[in-house]
Each structure stands twice: as C-alpha cells, then as structure tokens.
Amino acid sequence: MADGKKDYTAITSAISEGISGLRGTGAKETLNQFNTMAKAALADGALDSKTKELIALAIGVAKQCDGCIGFHTKALKRLGASDEEVAETLAMTVYMGGGPSLMYAGDAWSAWLALKDS
Predict the structure, then answer these.
(1) pTM of the model
(2) Please, is 57 exposed, middle or buried when counting C-beta atoms within 10 Å of its C-beta (0-12, 13-18, 19+)?
(3) Fold designation for 8-115
(4) Which of 58, 61, 67, 101 has fewest C-beta within 10 Å?
C-alpha cells in the first residue's frame, strides 16, 4: 500500500492462506458447511449469479469488508460484469449507506479497476 491504494490481490491471497490453515483444525467442518451454503446461495435461480455477486459486493462495501470487496470483485470479473453494472451497484450502496459507504465504494471501484483486467 505504498501508493495509498489497497492491494486486493494481496488481501485476498492472505485471507485464502489463513482459511487454508483453518481447514487443518477443528474448524474444518464449519468451513465446509460455509462453502456448501455459499454454493447454494450463489446458484442461479430467480436471480443469476452475477446479480447475486453484485449484491454481495454491495454488502461488502456496506460492512466495510476489504476481503469481501476483493473476493466479490474477482467473481464479478469472472462473470463478465461491466463497469456500468459495478458502478450502479456502488452508487446504490452509497445511497443506502451514506458517507461510510462512499469511502468503501471508492475502494471497491479501485479494486474493480485493478482486478478486472488482471
């Protein structure tokens, strides 16, 4: 973060490493069940996976969760989200969350720009 920007690749890598370490502990079953829940929640239904990931990004911004921003931004890249879809999602988050959401929406936009073309 020498240039003042968060490194979302490093953030998500560090979190993934920590979670991998937890898998070797008594938390393994909890993590497995969380993964099962995530797969069920993200499956296409009345809402498609991309829409669900946009919602997840908005919640990550509202909850000020750097890891959530990083992981859901990566997922949105994989799902083919557009700049406009991400921007409108972030605008809605700012509308609902005010100034604190605006601060993290700026971070999320930086993450999107950094990760979408990587």
Answers:
(1) 0.89
(2) buried
(3) AhpD-like (1.20.1290)
(4) 67
